[in-house]
Write a structure and sequence with these properties.
Elements (H helix, E strand, L loop, with lengths): L5 E2 L3 E4 L7 H10 L2 E8 L3 E8 L2 E4 L3 E2 H14 L11 E9 L2 E12 L2 E10 L14 H12 L3 E7 L5 H10 L8 E5 L10 E4 L8 H9 L5 E4 L5 H12 L3 E7 L3 H10 L4 H7 E13 L5 E3 L3 H9 L8 E3 L11 E12 L2 H9 L3 H10 L5 H10 L5 H10 L1
Parallel strand pairs: 1-7, 2-7, 10-14, 10-15, 11-12, 11-13, 13-14
Antiparallel strand pairs: 3-4, 3-9, 4-5, 4-6, 7-8, 8-9, 15-18, 16-17
Length: about 400
């Protein structure tokens, strides 16, 4: 059995008190709006990469004489033992800086005789989104509101890693009446504290896994349960049965569309009759990069792009946006990201299809026949409005 990472008590630091070269790396990352920093050892240097708007960007290399120094500086800042070089290490740094207050999640793993490190920025004062700010179409917003106000059933937020599922989960929680409802959550980890919600964090070191946590939460008389991620048979079955028993359960799941989310729950041995009775709504989402408003250029769509719009039932626009790059966006051509959504309410026909065990292809055809806007169409629509570039929209369409 593989040992769990050794975890330290998080520490609070002032940005200007951090040593060089760590302070310089963090300064550049914060200036460029990076969400992640990766340090990867190479034979004679340290490869430094930032993730900006979901895309990895390779930066200047850290020379060999600074390689061990910066990893040790990260360990000290995170209150980790510098002598532990051959075990995984985890910690948090509470960082106060001119860019705001941040929590940095630190993970360090041994790679051969050296170490690789990952730092993720989490805004300590992050504002929780409300549903209206997600950029949903009016009819989709109504589907979500209706599902929440029913007060029972299972709502799934589906998408890949890094597609903003947790932000949507928190926005759904924010829509609940916290004065009239007991709302609890189980997360791994708790990324942001939400006032009025009892948030429980999975702690494998102390024997608190997802299944045990859900059992505890169900004994607390909750009206609504938030599940950070359904990832195994026990959590899937418990969540679905709790929803069927009259509670509102909102959970994220790794899946690229509603049909795959349903297949995943079947794979986790949720009985079809339970799933068909419990499931109310599937929100599928992606995150695409917003085009930089300052430097983007407009051009006419090509014949192939016009055909792509028509394929997805949309009228081709007169112009589409093209990313360029300028000093304002650090020459990336993009600044920030926006959610792309596909909302699938589970009505009587789709519920019956789940109960029958229809295959994935037939289920997708039934969803399409109901006329709900697809992820691809939503991306193309945002490209027509100039919010994203046509290249981002095409990337999503062709990847699916």
């Amino acid at each position: 059995m593989n040992p769990l990472p050794q975890r330290a008590v998080h520490t609070s630091r002032q940005f200007n008190d951090l040593p060089e070269p760590l302070r310089s790396v963090l300064r550049i990352a914060l200036t460029e709006r990076a969400t992640d920093i990766h340090f990867d050892p190479a034979p004679s240097e340290e490869v430094l990469r930032f993730r900006v708007d979901g895309i990895l960007q390779r930066k200047e290399l850290i020379q060999a004489d600074q390689r061990g120094r910066i990893i040790n500086q990260i360990k000290v800042a995170a209150n980790l033992n510098t002598d532990h070089s051959f075990v995984p290490l985890e910690s948090d740094i509470e960082l106060q800086s001119e860019w705001g207050d941040f929590r940095i999640r630190v993970s360090i793993i041994p790679v051969g005789v050296r170490a690789a490190a990952h730092l993720r920025f989490l805004a300590a004062d992050r504002t929780v989104l409300d549903l209206e700010s997600l950029g949903l179409r009016a009819e989709n917003l109504q589907h979500i509101t209706d599902a929440i106000h029913r007060g029972h059933g299972l709502i799934l937020v589906a998408g890949g890693t890094g597609t903003g599922k947790t932000s949507t989960l928190y926005a759904l929680a924010n829509a609940l009446d916290l004065q009239r409802n007991i709302v609890v959550s189980i997360e791994d980890p708790v990324e942001f504290r939400l006032p009025g919600i009892r948030q429980l964090q999975v702690n494998q070191h102390h024997g608190l896994d997802m299944q045990a946590g859900l059992r505890v939460l169900l004994r607390m008389d909750p009206d609504a349960i938030l599940i950070g991620e359904i990832r195994d048979e026990n959590s899937a079955t418990t969540a679905a049965r709790a929803a069927l028993a009259g509670r509102l359960v909102v959970a994220t799941i790794h899946a690229t569309d509603a049909a795959m989310a349903i297949d995943a729950l079947k794979h986790y041995s949720v009985p079809r009759y339970v799933l068909s009775g419990a499931l109310r709504l599937v929100i599928t989402q992606e995150l695409l990069r917003r085009v930089c408003r300052k430097c983007s250029q407009q051009r006419a769509p090509t014949p192939n792009e016009c055909a792509l719009y028509e394929k997805h039932g949309l009228t081709p626009p007169v112009t589409v946006s093209k990313a360029v790059g300028c000093g304002e966006c650090d020459n990336y051509g993009y600044a920030g990201r926006i959610g792309i959504y596909e909302i699938t309410p589970i009505g009587a026909e789709l519920s019956e299809a789940i109960s029958r065990g229809d295959n994935r292809l037939d289920f997708c055809k039934r969803i399409a026949a109901e006329g709900h806007q697809s992820l691809e169409a939503n991306a193309l629509q945002k490209a027509a409005c100039g919010t994203i570039s046509i290249a981002e929209a095409k990337k999503l369409c062709f990847s699916r």
